[in-house]
Amino acid sequence: MKEKKTLILVTNDDGIEAHGIRILIDIARLYGEVIVVAPDSPQSAKSHSITQNIPISFREIKLENQYREYSCSGTPVDCVKLAVHEILERKPDLILSGINHGLNTSISVLYSGTMGAAIEGSLNSIRSIGFSAENYLPDADFSYTVPYIKKIIEDVMQNGLPEGVSLNVNIPENPKGMVLCRSAHGKWKEKFIDAKNPHGRKVFWISGKFIDLEPDSEDTDIFLINKGYASIVPTKANFNDIDSLKELKFRKLYQ
Amino acid sequence: MKEKKTLILVTNDDGIEAHGIRILIDIARLYGEVIVVAPDSPQSAKSHSITQNIPISFREIKLENQYREYSCSGTPVDCVKLAVHEILERKPDLILSGINHGLNTSISVLYSGTMGAAIEGSLNSIRSIGFSAENYLPDADFSYTVPYIKKIIEDVMQNGLPEGVSLNVNIPENPKGMVLCRSAHGKWKEKFIDAKNPHGRKVFWISGKFIDLEPDSEDTDIFLINKGYASIVPTKANFNDIDSLKELKFRKLYQ
Q: Does residue B6 sit at the A interface (CB-CB below 8 Å)?
């Protein structure tokens, strides 16, 4: 069977014991040889961070035919780097990250460790997909996501993705279908919840509320999810703002 | 004096005791009231990560007229969020991040905590600038950077920045001048250096080599820095890849 030769790396940011990655592993195993390299503890909101000041390590959890599992002390991006450059004998054909417990729409892609891992994969020219589902519960029933995830994996295995592009897939509960779209322009409005630690010191838990900055646009992930669809956003990290470059050049302040 | 009312937040990713932030603080104090909220330990390569699973805290280090200093247990982005939403009485007029010990050109902007803080500022519509200098030594002589940093701060205070845009400033040693440009398309080729920890366990230190993927382009930060100029890149985080959206729509695989 041709598919059995496909090498699939699975990771996430909720940690190797999260429910979401278990579902994703089960799906991945339908399509090829699966290697899991995932954080040994929750790594939510780790963005694209890597571990530089301390060493990282990994540990073999399972070793079966066509299936291996490793937990790693680093971030999701560390997991991808360590897997690709150290653990795997060859470059994987596919990287699957998730299923994240909670959506990563709009600006959340910037903070998301799930998408950090997928973007890192795409920087290495590996077809990469991040999956997030609208349920934060540790024992969330993600079974409704399975047919959608399978359809996307099959499409990407067959047709590929543009160079350097990953998919950011967000699945609300029991979606009506799925739609390719762009991510909404939005921001988080922070609120810190203060508490006292056992030593009497004031500490702060980060919390916040998402603000959709273009609620009238009908082509965004936020709009479509609110309408009950799963969103698929082609994602590429780009930090150059070419319009501003032109605008600032007019100032002639710099040589 | 009008300038004295300007409120400037200074942060970094090398930690509050780093040499680079001390230089930046001294410069900032020439232009207004300065509040420093910086990580209490080195936070290099923390990207846009925030601390979600544990609480963060901050501690007052100095309290002087027109000058306060706080160390924070979180990441650079945590520092900006905590400063803006919890510590400061009003929104700062300017955020300065750095001076980072080491350049943050090309794709390094994605991993950089220095630029994570600046980008977070710009998401809050605050004029934000990240400074990085080409010297990794803890006691680097950054005095050559001072006139360049002053010129950029004065320009931004006077003329502002486009909405949502921060500046990524990289200064090689003794530059010939500074140039507005875009960041180069590049990538890091990882290499892990393995070692044994004192308990005999194999651990890995991340290392790597930068690869410029467009060495012939003459309008990139990498090219200009190699020619001896400081680079100023207008920076905005954009993860939507609109070209791919059009390409993938043709597949008609999704509704």
A: no
